[in-house]
Input
Amino acid sequence: MTTASPHGPLDVRPISADEHLAFVRSRSSVSFLQTPAWAAVKNEWRGESIGWFDAARPAGEQLVGAALVLYRQLPRVKRYLAYLPEGPDVDWTDLDLARWLTPMAAHLKGQGAFGIRMGPPVVTRRWHAGTIKQAIADPVLATLSDVPADVLDDEAIGVASALAALGWKEIPTEGGFSAGQPKFNFQLPLEGRDEDAVLAGMNQLWRRNIKKAAKAGVEVTRGGRDDLAAFHEVYAETAERDHFTPRPLSYFERMWDAMTSEEADRLVLYLARHEGDLVAATTMVRVGGHAWYSYGASTTEKRDVRGSNAIQWQMIRDAMAAGATTYDMRGITETLDTDDSHVGLIQFKVGTGGEAVEYLGEWDLPLNRALHAGFTAYMRRR
Output
């Protein structure tokens, strides 16, 4: 499964979870959705770790890329959608992307895939907090895409053209979200900054709420597996209040078991209490220099003690202490319309002084057009 290239052919083949994890550890960071442990979390899919090998390199240096593939089976047919969430982890700066993606497609087709879906970890645009704040105040600007970016990466945008030339098609987004992972995230850069600098970069409301929580006596601690039930109780309350379908407790227990067995501090649970009452609870995931706020919950009672701000500040501080260069608050919608309830989430995150980032989005490659079209129609009906 190789393809000719002036840079030398690459071979794609399965690798063990241990080989995959060793590669992840050699990188500055990859998405936690691309760690071997994530296959155990998503146990309704069939997981496979694959690697890219360059035979022209010395022995021991031939593994040059890796990915976690999740296979979702079609109903009643042994054919699969091969999904690489926020992956693969390959050299996206290589102008010859075919040498990476063509052998990958051949391997996945050999595994019974009728189509491939991936989310290249490539950032195309960035908007600073001040830019977003001004844009929200401007009634003419309805979405982030209407706002000129502070940073525009032409090479990253060139990747989109290269993918299209290879037959890949971008999945349309609605409000910045596709069927899988968010296209727009909010991130707080930490590299080269200390706690004072990060705190000074937050808006006045955030700083005031952090101080208010401390003055009220809010205590933030780390929890263990036994505390997941308490977290889930607050999470379920949040789901009912904010009108989303909560995941079951078993999902978080599985996530804990899989991720902490890979690295002891891969997943950390935080609990904020006021006078013994749990007022907020969150989870943070870290892979190398990237830390993610993955799940959060808060009670309706005692919201005035600002447990959510206190718990976020503790996670940010812990991420910095662990050497993280990015604190990722995950997805935001694209809307800037103040009449849209989703804009409140953006305003909360903008208060940290970070930046909105746009990724390349998720892309599909049909390998069997009839089956791919049938699957697409099936998912739309769902």
